Fold this protein.
Amino acid sequence: MKRKDGWTLVEMLAATSCSLVILAALGGFARSQTRFLDRETRRLELRETCRRVLEAITREIRGAGYSPVTGTFDGLHDGLAVAARDHIELRSDLHGTSASDPPDGVLDTDSDERVGFLFNSSRGLVSETIGRQTLPLTVDFVIPVDGFELHYFDACDTEAAPASSALLTPEERARVRRVGVHLDVAQAGIGRVSGDAFSTLRNREQLRCETAE
């Protein structure tokens, strides 16, 4: 008997099953790609955070101690005002009484002439202090407990290593020529992004290594 044109029920069921399998596979692939793109986007955000924080810190270190005119502020010795493993304070004579005035040789500690960076290990973030204002540079809990360290080097590239909670003495700070910053930024499910940066204090570039013969 000659078969009529068209699909049998079995053929339709088989075709439908194949289509569903293909659609399920495509859906799984799409979900996988979406998750991958989301992870990569968040990882790029971590890298950008790391780069931005390191750039902000090294820029301020480079300009620390700027003092174009003679006055009560000694930029060579007081530019690096505080030096510890987890925080640093930098000072410069950027302007006079107001931001539009030229440098006057006097430090205004309530302005942007006093800048600091502090790692808060309990909150997992780095903050910047400008005068009396404190501004977070990262969100909470993005930096691991061991994710931020400052290192101080003299002209011979010998590190002056303060204890975890100690400060460099004034004599040790006066010998610092270069500062290194290590930063880790992490997020659950994404991983950890690490960065290191070094910056030489501009007004201490003339310091040279002196070794005993």
